Amino acid sequence: MGVNIPPSGWLRTRPALSIRARLVLIVLAAAIPLALLSAWTALQLAERERDSRREALVFAARTILSGVEAEIEASLALGSALAAAPALVENDFVSFRKQAEAALERMPGGRIVVSDPAGQQLVNTGLPPGSPLPRRLSLDVPMRAFQTRQPQISDVFVGALARTPIASVEVPVFRDGQPHVIVSSILEPENFLGLLNRQDTPEGWLLGIIDRVGNFVARSHDHDQRVGTPAAAGWRAVMEKEGYFEFPSLEGDLISQANVISRLSGWRVGVAARKAVLDAPVTATLFQASIGGAAVTLLSLLLALWIASRIVRPVHELGDKAVSLVDGKEVSFESPLPELADVWKALSQAVAERELREQHIQFIMHELSHRSKNLLAVIQSIARQTARQSPDFSAFEARFNARVTALSDAHDLLLRHDWAGAPIKDVIFHQLAPFDGGRVVLDGPDVVLRPEAVQNISLAMHELATNAAKHGALATLHGKIGVQWSIDGSGPETRFRLTWIESGGPIAVAPPERTGFGRIVLERIAPQALSGTARLDFLPAGAMWTLDIPATWIVGRPEHRRERRVAASEPN
Prior knowledge:
The protein contains 14 helices and 19 strands. With 572 residues, it is α+β, with helices and mostly antiparallel strands. The chain folds into 2 domains: 15-328, PAS domain (Beta-Lactamase), CATH 3.30.450; 357-565, Histidine kinase-like ATPase, C-terminal domain (Heat Shock Protein 90, 2-Layer Sandwich). Helix 1 (19-83) packs antiparallel against helix 8 (275-326), helix 11 packs across helix 13 (451-470) and helix 12 (424-432) packs parallel to helix 13 (451-470). It is elongated. It starts with 18 loop residues before the first helix and ends in a 7-residue tail after the last strand.
């Protein structure tokens, strides 16, 4: 029954989706990931912008903290220096006041107070000499200074004289080992407010310093109303941690804040900004990136539609002429699209090489027949030699099946490598996997064996491993096997040498009384098939087999060496 070939116009019969539609879908498939990538990139840029602003908050907080600690260290140094004045020990408070006032000339706005252990002020440079001096309202910090014998930095408290919030550095003075007086260097919150006001920060940022209990020492906004009062609950909730946090401010705005802690005083410095203000540039970046991405995607689609119209026409022409070419007609095709020109060239070559492919198929069939005959010859040899060495059919069946399986494993390995050869380590792994591979050490360069070498070395490895498991190193828990190989020489004289060495077997090794098939494989079949030589020695420590063959059985020279131990996870 004949088959009617429709005219060339049949190629123009459109399927459910035309070429134009398919091209548009391809462009969409490319545009959508591009749009997603653009969105992801925009998000990454926005996140980096957000991280940059967070880092700016942290940097500003640390800068302020450095100034705060410098202010405290200056007061600590002044108080410690004055506490060492001999006039204090001698109760010469008039001379001490003169010394303190001279020192305060270098610290404008500073104030020194001296109190006895009961809290009675003895010197107060903030009042004229001879003025009545009050008793301190709280002695917690002075008592801690006396107990620790170390200067202490207070939190914010209400001063006994001015009744305004202050802080102090308390330095204890002892006489005859007993608490004598306490020297207080007063820390005025206004000094820290001036430190905050000197910071060059963006509009809308909020700066603050709180003490260890969460009360404001200074605040850039509403300082007079907030000093000495508790900070926002959100800040106090995280005041024991350093880092970046978000919480409502005292004014009720959601703020983003960086919090750092002074190791000197335990005070906290916070730099914050309203989250809406901080995120405004990030939101603008995302909006601009979205508009840009949408515009680029739309432009890509319009351009794709125009390009698709320029492709469809020559594709139809290519289809018409392809039918004529398959029919054996002399036709030519020219296209402004290099890809279609390449397709036409490929079609022309395909028609011209059709006969060559048929010849190649015949060659493959011949090669398959040749390999099959060689394999059958090897199996026949295995069968004959195994039958001669087997006392009964059961022994023959077990030995024959094991050897054929070893050969089958070698062929599976070659099949996975397209019969181009196989790495020597894989050859050895495939034969040693059923045995205790954890005691086998491989050492040699990474080389690839040709198929004939894979078959013969696989059979040899099987015989050696089987014998080792029955009588040699693998028959004990402490036996060892080393397989080493190397490539020696250069040029036509290059040789490949492989050595199997056993040690730690159950008994001292002695040559067997008869020659079995395994020994025939090791001493004759394998070396002769590979145009080389082999030597099997039965040393007292264990069997040793050496194979020496031409390096032509190696597909390529190694690039590096490695040492490996056979493990259960290796391929088998």
